[in-house]
Design brief:
By secondary structure, the protein is α+β, with helices and mostly antiparallel strands. It has eight helices and 15 strands. The strands form five sheets. It has a five-stranded mixed beta sheet. Strands 2-9-5 form a three-stranded antiparallel beta sheet, with no helix packed on it. Strands 6-7-8 form a three-stranded antiparallel beta sheet, with no helix packed on it.
């Protein structure tokens, strides 16, 4: 199943490059981002990923990648003539002009042509510029593996400073669409193959197969992994933790942090929810305030029959309640959407 990711992409004019190991790229940062196979994380960017474009000091805009093209190209690579390191820096006010990471100094680097894979990530149709200066520090806090040398740096969506979203009202719809897409994708228990409709669909005919077994399988998948669901049942009883419904056949095990592996089946990362509420939770149309455990709904849900549960407290026990951290992460996403 495709998991969309969030990235910081740094765009710097060639004349401002600190390191002289290559000639840089011809970025048209409002429309596309160029990079090659020598750049760390070059294989990680994917169509659909959310990207924040920045320079050294400020954020420039946000976009979602629409297309990535790949070609072979020749690139001039400059290296230290002594140790052959590409980590060389041009100095402004001192001779010799260059210094490498190993402290060798020289006036002219060695140059060679290398064939590389050259990439262009296009996003012009979704690019939203930032109308005011937002310092890069608000994004750097969210770096998953902090490294000032990375041109393509992965971010943790949950840790991006709220000021980025508060100040950039015009980016809200783009970010909301992205959050919705990762919420739907990451909460599915099992990936299923979608059946595409043909341009000229055949007339409907009753299936010759008895599909009842398949229906029951899909219900079991939706309820969640059996051990996880049974564990939550032992902790909280046969109950929807929002409505109090005790009809076990329609109560499902919901992950608070999306399921990505075995560790996410920790019972502190789980809720027992009626099937319809599980869907609302997956779509971030319902959330739980982490400290007081009060239940809140997006206006879409509140005005369509769920308002009666607004502000009620999650039903927990004296000995067990969901962990604060995953609830807080989901709450932050919910707040960004409402």
């Amino acid at each position: 199943m495709k998991q969309f990711r969030v990235w910081s992409l740094i765009s710097i004019p060639n004349e401002q490059l600190q390191y002289g190991g290559n000639e840089g790229y011809e970025d048209d940062w409002k429309n596309s981002y160029s990079y090659d196979s020598h750049v760390p994380n070059h294989k990680q960017l994917s169509i659909g990923d959310l990207v924040f474009i920045r320079n050294r000091k400020n954020l420039l805009g946000v976009a979602r990648i629409e297309k990535i093209s790949q070609t072979k190209n020749e690139k001039i690579v400059k290296k230290c003539p002594f140790c052959k390191s590409p980590g060389i820096k041009k100095r402004k006010h001192i001779l010799p002009l260059f210094r490498c990471n190993n402290r060798h100094t020289f006036n002219e680097p060695d140059e060679s042509l290398k064939t590389v894979e050259f990439y262009v990530a296009e996003y012009g149709g979704t690019f939203t510029p930032f109308s005011e200066n937002i310092p890069v520090i608000y994004l750097k806090k969210a770096a998953m593996r902090p490294n000032d040398q990375l041109a393509i740096e992965e971010l943790d969506l949950y840790k991006i400073d709220k000021i980025v979203f508060e100040k950039i009202a015009e980016s809200n719809s783009l970010v909301k669409d992205f959050i919705q897409s990762i919420s739907i994708n990451s909460n599915e228990a099992v990936e299923s193959s979608a059946t595409e409709l043909s341009e000229s669909p055949a007339p409907y005919e009753k299936s010759p197969l008895d599909m009842r077994e398949e229906v029951m399988k899909s219900i079991k998948v939706r309820r969640g992994q059996k051990k996880f669901r049974e564990g939550l049942k032992k902790e909280y009883g046969i109950i929807c933790m929002v409505t109090g419904c005790s009809m076990w056949e329609i109560i499902e095990a919901a992950h608070i942090d999306p399921y990505r592996g075995f560790n996410d089946n920790d019972l502190r990362n789980g809720l027992l929810l009626r099937a319809d509420l599980h869907t609302l939770f997956d779509l971030n149309l319902m959330a739980i305030e982490p400290v007081n455990l009060t239940i809140h709904f997006h206006s879409l849900a509140s005005t369509n029959g769920y308002g009666e549960f607004e502000g009620k407290k999650l039903k927990v026990t004296k000995t067990c309640r969901p962990a604060l951290e995953p609830l807080n992460r989901r709450w932050l996403i919910f707040k960004k959407l409402t």
